[in-house]
Amino acid sequence: MSGKRVDASRRLRILAAQLGLAVVILTGWQLGSRTGAIDPFFFSAPTDIADRIGEWFRTGEIYGHLRTTLLEAVLALVIGGALGLVLGFLLARTRLLAAVLDPYVKAANALPRVVLAPLFLLWFGLGIWSKVAFGVSLVFFIVFFNTHQGVREVDRVLVDNARMLGAGEARLIRHVLLPSALTWIFSSLRVSVGFAIVGAVVGEYLGSSEGMGYLISQAEGTFDTTGVFAGMAVLSAFVLAIDLLVGRVERRLLRWRPVPEQSTNSL
User: Fold this and answer.
1) Which residue in 110, 235, 249, 265 has the most C-beta neighbors within 10 A?
2) What's the pLDDT at 267?
3) Does residue 260 fall inside a structural domain?
4) C-beta neighbour count of 220 within 10 angstroms
């Protein structure tokens, strides 16, 4: 019980520090905007940004844009994550195939994604699938490399013991490799959430008629910095919310892991 109290106290202190830092930054930003130390033409005041966000939600203007962007991001995350997970497992378990494909994977990962975005628009059109393809190109490699490394890091003694007990490849993956690599996989998924959103927004920014990227592009085209910052704030809030959800799922699925002892003197 004492360990749980210490852990809860530590989380509360971290949360208080995070909120305090946000208050300091926003207060300084607001004061700078009102006193003229910060030019409001380039950096809109936080209150103006909050008013714009409230207006978007009151009028319902943002809902269609937000729905489109979230759909594209979720599809990119699911498709890119699934491909990265499957191929990461496959190459980690097939050393010869991994050695053959190694230079091709590295070359594909080295391609600048921004250069690919216009090609995706050409191949898939201005609909959602060009944005999904761009997001998949960002998410795939993060999940692939983490899954590949996570499977490679599984304790060989554990794998050998499972084989001696008669576990085939399917059972080995289900009961040994996948649980052992879950930490790596969830770590990559939490990073990939932001990249999926980025892929959707950048694709919309380059060519679209709907979405948060389109909304930000329109605001930028009219030098509406308040709209630009409001769009970025909404996207950041949704990324944090999705990351929180993924973190809860991770803790639920990894409840079997032993919790390391923490010193009462730690933060």
Assistant:
1) 235
2) 42
3) no
4) 14
Alpha-carbon gap, residue 199 to 74, rounded angstroms: 11
The backbone torsions φ and ψ at residue 249, rounded to the nearest 5 degrees and listed phi first, read -65, -40
**Residue 96: its pLDDT value, please?**
85
Q: Does one domain contain both 219 and 122? A: yes
| Lookup: tokens for 233 | 């704030």
Range(s) of the domain holding residue 4: 1-38
Instruction: Sort 152 into a burial class: Cβ within 10 Å, 0-12 / 13-18 / 19+.
Output: middle
Residue with tokens 């084989």: 163
| 243 confidence band (pLDDT: 50, 70, 90) | confident
DSSP 3-state percent helix, strand, coil across the chain (nearest 5): 80, 0, 20
What values do phi and psi take at 246, rounded to 5? -65, -40
Is 267 a member of any domain?
no
- CA gap 196, 72 in Å, rounded: 8
Q: Please say whether the beta carbons of 65 and 218 come within 8 A.
A: no
**Residue 263's pLDDT is what?**
41
Residue with tokens 């004061």: 31
Cα separation, 3 vs 23, in Å, equals 30
| Cα(154)–Cα(98) distance, integer angstroms | 17
Structural domains counted in the chain: 2
Packing angle of the helix pair 178-206, 128-152 (nearest 10 deg): 160
79 and 191 part of one domain: yes
Lowest mean pLDDT among 2-11, 14-23, 90-99: 2-11
In a shared domain, residues 120 and 5? no
Calpha distance 155→174 (Å, rounded): 15
Chain centre distance of CA 60: 26
Closest CA to 72 of 151, 19, 127: 127
